[in-house]
Design a protein that fits this description.
The protein is mainly beta and about 425 residues long. About 5% of the residues lie in helices and about 35% in strands. The protein contains two helices and 31 strands. The chain has helices at about 35-50, 75-80, and strands spanning about 10, 55, 65, 100, 115-120, 125-130, 135-140, 150-155, 160-165, 170-175, 180-185, 190-195, 210, 215-220, 225-230, 235-240, 245-250, 255-260, 265-270, 275-280, 290-295, 300-305, 310-315, 325, 335-340, 345-350, 355-360, 365, 380-385, 390-395, 400-405. The strands form eight sheets. Strands 1-8-7-6-5 form a five-stranded antiparallel sheet, with helices on one face. The protein has a four-stranded antiparallel sheet with strand order 4-31-30-29, with no helix packed on it. A four-stranded antiparallel sheet has the order 9-10-11-12, with no helix packed on it. A hairpin with a 5-residue loop joins strand 29 and strand 30 (about 390-395). The protein is globular, with a radius of gyration of 21 Å. The relative contact order is 0.13.
């Protein structure tokens, strides 16, 4: 990789030293040395948890700082490693406890008029926000200030899709206008331009996902191609092929199986060890498949179509499965499906109509009736994500917003 390949992406490393000549300047990024040190420590804490130089007593009102500087340790309550969800009272059907909080991008509105990606960090209370302006921001999630920790500008690169790696140390950004993509290392504070050779056949990188085992990046290509890259080195491995264009991909929680859904309405099940299709079946009543999601417990596969229908299948599926439930609450193309981590909520979204989002109570297969309301005004939703323990719901839309909601049933982040 040469310098000419990375000069278009500008960032600062963890020591505050500039890697390349700065071609733009954001007034919000002008910080005093003390403020800059604080931000860098926040980033460090947010990724690796509480460092050895800090300690918080069990009484949160008593904070002890084992350092020479008098810094505020409130961030440690939010940016440290997350506790695992404790099994509690089952989520009830009917009405969901949900509260609108301050927008995730309250402290940064530079992602563009259309915010395409929002995703919570897998182990820390951070979120990634990215949009068509080519800027990606890392914010600290607290529901009040949602402070921006870092903002990275990718020149001439409208971001359509962005995901954290499974270990949370990097994020990958792709665009529908580029076959190449970028990887940003949060620990080192630097970006990597990842070139993709034209012989591979990849023409865009706007629809990809990460395998939960941390091994692969899978990207939807043209003519039914699915391109696989190593998550570690970002090198191309191989290309799989299905009939018709691949529109959505999802993995089982161990990464051993991948499902793909395409324009012909067929769902393919792939063995990721042999890289072969072991099963395929038609989605019931589907003309064109648009979105897939697999529950974290591997119990359910949700399939959304261009007609707005969402079919919920109980796994494992036979050769000609019938849906366990068909949900008809959306009237336009299902663009996104997402289960929360405990697999008791399924979010269903269409980006073709305002407020076209529904939350399904999975155990009862019924839709929560109190979200969204007419006052929520969520706009056209492009992306949706649940925080690691289900306490937060994030939405990105076409109004420059990354919305944040608190799901009050879930006590942990």
């Amino acid at each position: 990789m040469n310098k000419s390949e990375t000069v278009d992406c500008l960032e600062e490393n963890m020591n505050g030293k500039k890697n390349f000549k700065r071609a733009w300047r954001d007034e919000d990024d002008k910080k005093s040395n003390k403020e800059q040190r604080k931000i860098l420590k926040q980033k460090y804490v947010g990724i690796v948890g509480k460092p050895k130089w800090a300690e918080i007593t069990t009484d949160q009102s008593k904070k002890v700082l084992l350092d020479d500087e008098d810094e505020d340790l409130d961030l440690l309550k939010y940016s440290g490693n997350l506790a695992r969800t404790k099994k509690g009272v089952n989520l009830a059907k009917g009405l969901i406890g949900i509260k609108k909080l301050h927008n995730l991008n309250l402290s940064t509105s530079s992602c563009g008029k259309i915010v395409k990606s929002v995703e919570f960090h897998p182990t820390s209370s951070l979120a990634l926000i990215a949009g068509i302006s080519g800027r990606a921001s890392i914010v600290q999630v607290d529901g009040f200030k949602n402070d921006k920790l870092q903002s990275i500008k990718f020149q001439k690169f409208a971001i359509d899709c962005a995901h954290f790696t499974v270990d949370g140390k990097q994020f990958v950004a792709g665009s529908r206008t580029q076959r190449n993509f970028y990887c940003y290392d949060l620990m080192e504070g630097r970006s990597m331009f990842v070139p993709v050779h034209h012989n591979i056949g990849q023409t865009r990188m706007d629809n990809f996902c990460m395998s939960p085992d941390g091994k692969l990046i899978a990207s939807c290509g043209k003519y039914g191609e699915i391109h696989l890259f190593t998550a570690k080195s970002k090198e191309w491995i191989t290309t799989l092929k299905m009939n018709g264009a691949a529109n959505s991909l999802t993995f089982t929680n161990d990464g051993k199986r991948m499902y793909s859904f395409g324009e012909n309405g067929e769902i393919y099940e792939w063995d990721m060890n042999s890289r072969t299709c072991i099963k395929k079946f038609m989605d019931d009543g589907c003309l064109q498949g648009t979105s897939l999601a697999l529950s974290g417990d591997n119990q359910y596969l949700a399939a959304g179509s261009s007609s707005g229908v969402v079919n919920l299948y109980k796994l494992p599926c036979d050769v000609n499965p019938k849906p366990d439930k068909t949900i008809l609450n959306l009237l336009t193309t299902v663009s996104k499906l997402s289960f929360n981590k405990s697999s008791d909520i399924l979010a269903m979204v269409s980006n073709q109509k305002n407020d076209a989002i529904k939350l399904l109570h999975v155990p009862s297969k019924t839709v929560f009736s109190n979200f969204p309301t007419t006052s929520d005004n969520v706009g056209k939703v492009n992306c949706i994500d649940f925080s690691p323990n289900g306490g937060y719901l994030g939405l990105s839309n076409n109004k420059s917003e990354a919305l944040l909601y608190r799901l009050t049933h879930f006590k942990n982040y």
